[in-house]
Each structure stands twice: as structure tokens, then as C-alpha cells.
Amino acid sequence: MNGCTFTRTFRSTLPHAQEWTLAVRKFKGGVTPSKFTLNPGESKTVSIHIDNGGLVPDSRFYFGNVMVKPTGNTTLPEMSLPVAIAVPPPAVVLDAPSVDVSVKAGSTGLARVDMVNDGGGTLKFQLNNSPVEQELHSAPHNTVATAFASTIWTELSPAGQQAQFGSDDFYLQSETTITSFFTEGFVSSRKPLETVASTITWSIFRDGGDQPDGDPLQSPGKAVWSYTAAPATAGITISSPSDRINANIRLDLAAVGQNLRLPPGRYWLVVNTAGAYADNWNWFATDSGDADDLYRLLLLPRDGTTWGDYVFHKGLSMDITGKFQCGAPWLGMPSPVSGSLKGGERRNVSITVNSAGMAPGTYTAYACFDTTDAKRPKVAEQIRMTVTR
Fold it and tell me: Are residues 291 and 358 in the same domain?
């Protein structure tokens, strides 16, 4: 993106022919045509180009004008057409979340990654295959008001139940170290969660056929990982507006001394509090992001152990971040290894894959790049190589 171009139409209200000269001020740019004559009642459309070179790409507005001057007539005033321009910062986008390539055993293939600057300014990128941390699952609740209790109660509910849990699934394509969980919800009594929940528990279960293969009350030992702590523990953040309606929970695993490394696979996350029935923590549902129309609820006792499926929404609100290794022995150097993209520009980056000495099957790795996008300083493209006979 070298700037922007727009048109404006001028109409003469004078009783005689008049020549006009147009010029851009305070910006680089120009007007085409920059000089024209209008007869009485006549109109003329011009094209105005503003060059954004030299402007800081920070979404801040810069102001200039287009001066419209009469030629040879000192009785007519000069006119000024105000112009404001803002250049957004660079924004990297990988055109697809993953690239699939199929090769025969002992041969090579080519994976093509499309990188786009969806912002303004100049986006620079550079190969960097050190480990990367990024969002693995993102599903904010946005405007969805539906929520489900996920609490172990200190007393039985009016219907005689001891607990209710919510759970939603997520997928890992390669061995990954989970770094944080963020779940959105609220407390039924509108009291601060820190004052009504004695503990918060996070549990991860393997997939047991489209549902968790256990639960935190009847079979907590089946969890591949769990962590329980008081809400005020360092590394746990409860975010609530002043009205205390919301109680969003974030867990920073490193800050609480947890090292959670999981192999590839499908998993189910359960987050629950422990407290009084009147002080339920309710987990918001979602219809956005990575939610996949599959989430589960368990009310104990109901029929003993069965998780129920609900299809009113796409899932439960949760964000998961993780860190994983970039590069692999079978993944070659990209071409180019670095480059720059103007706003709106797209670049194809080619990466060679080599199946020499590898058995038939599917292999996953990541090609990672540093970028000058302040919001995404490092991005990872998943490369899936299928080796055939």
C-alpha cells in the first residue's frame, strides 16, 4: 500500500470560464488533472492520490489539504479541501491455519505458506524456529448470555445433587506445553468469586468417545492433569467489572509452578469451583471462535456417570495458550527466509519437506517466523506431511 486514491467532483457556479490549479499540501501526493478550466455550470472530476510514505503506521490521523487556486483572477478566493489520513500498523495473517502436503516415502515435496499484511505500513518477517507460544483455542462468549453451573456444592442442591460440571474439548496437533487457561463466567449470587469459592479446580481428561473419560468428583484420578487452589493464589486472576456480574478466571501455569506438557490428541477441559449452591460459578457458552458444536454437562447424581450433550450453542467460552517446538529434521528452510510486505500485499513462502527414512504416516511440525506485527510478534504455520508408500 503506497497510499490512497480518491476522487472529487468540482462544479462551476461562475458566470464565466475559469481555470483552476490543484495541489496537495502537507502530504506527498498529487492531483490528476492538476489544472483544468470550467465553463459556467460545467463539472470536472479529479483523482487525488495521497502517498503514505513517511507516515508512522500507528492508526493516528495526519492532516493536510488540497489547495484549489483560481488562475489569473485575484478577486476569487483560494479554496481548501481538508484531507485526513491514518495508516494502520502492520498485521500479519497466515492465509490458512495449516498446510497439508502428501509425498511418497523417500521423496520430497513442497509446502506453500501464504503470508499477508492485512494492515498498513511495512510488515517484516524472519524465520525463527525457536519455541513459540500462541493461542491454541479461542472461543470468547461475546454476547451469549447462556451459562452452565460448574461447581461442587458444600451442601446438596434442592434436587439432591452434589455437583454439576461443564466441559469442552480441544485438540493438540503436536506435543505442546500448555501455558494458560482463560474461562468466562459469573457467580449466581453476584458476590466476588474470591469470597464465595473455597477452591478452583482445573482438570484435563482424555477423550472417552465424544465426552471426558472421567469427572472431578467420581473419578478425579482419571484426569491426565489437575490443579486445585484458592482463588487468591498468585497466578490465578479473577477479572470482574464493578457490578461483579462476571467472574472470568485465568490460570498462568508457570506462575503456579505447573509444567503441563501433553502429547498430540483430543482432550476435555473441566473448570469448577467449590462452594455453596447459591454461589454457583456459571460457565458462559459461546457461538464463536474455535467452538465446534460439542460440549458436555454432568449433573451428579443424575444417572450416575453419563455426561450429557447440549446443542443450544457451539461450546463453552475458553481460551487456551501453549508453547511448542518449531522446525523438524524433515522440514527444510523456507524460501524466502525473510522479507517485507506492504499493506495489503501477499507473499508465498515455499518450504521443502523430505520423507527420507520415514515410515508411512502423518507428521506434524511448525515453521515459525518473527514479525513486526506488535500484536503477533511471532507466528507459526502448521505443516502436515503425509508419507505414502
Answer: no
DSSP track, 110-174 = EEEEEEEE-SSSEEEEEE--S-EEEEEEEE--TT---EEE-EEESS--TTS--EEEEEEEEEESS
Please name which of 190, 217, 379, 209 lies closest in space to residue 304, comparing C-alpha atoms.
217
388 burial (CB, 10 Å; 0-12 / 13-18 / 19+) is exposed
Domain region containing 68? 3-86
Residue with cell 449452591: 277
Residues 105 and 142 occupy one common structural domain: no
Residues 222 and 120 in one domain: no
- Each residue's pLDDT, cut to its tens digit, for the chain (389 residues) gives 468 899 999 999 999 999 999 999 999 999 999 999 999 999 999 999 999 878 899 999 999 999 999 999 989 999 999 999 999 999 999 988 789 999 999 999 999 999 999 998 899 999 999 988 888 889 998 889 899 999 999 998 888 889 999 999 999 988 899 999 999 999 999 999 999 999 999 999 999 988 999 999 999 999 999 999 999 999 999 987 545 567 999 999 999 999 999 999 999 999 999 999 999 999 999 998 766 666 788 877 655 567 887 767 889 999 999 998 899 999 999 999 999 999 999 999 999 999 999 999 999 999 999 999 998 999 999 999 999 99
Question: Do 208 and 186 form a contact (C-beta atoms < 8 A)?
Answer: no
Residues 239 and 269: their CA atoms lie apart, in Å, by 20
Domain closes at, from 272, 300, 323: 323
How many folded domains does the chain comprise? 3
Whole-number Cα distances in Å, 248 to 43, 49, 135, 144, 182: 59, 47, 17, 14, 7
Find out whether 185 and 283 touch, Cβ atoms under 8 Å: yes
Residue 347: C-alpha distances to residues 94, 203, 279 (Å): 10, 42, 53
310: helix, strand or coil: strand
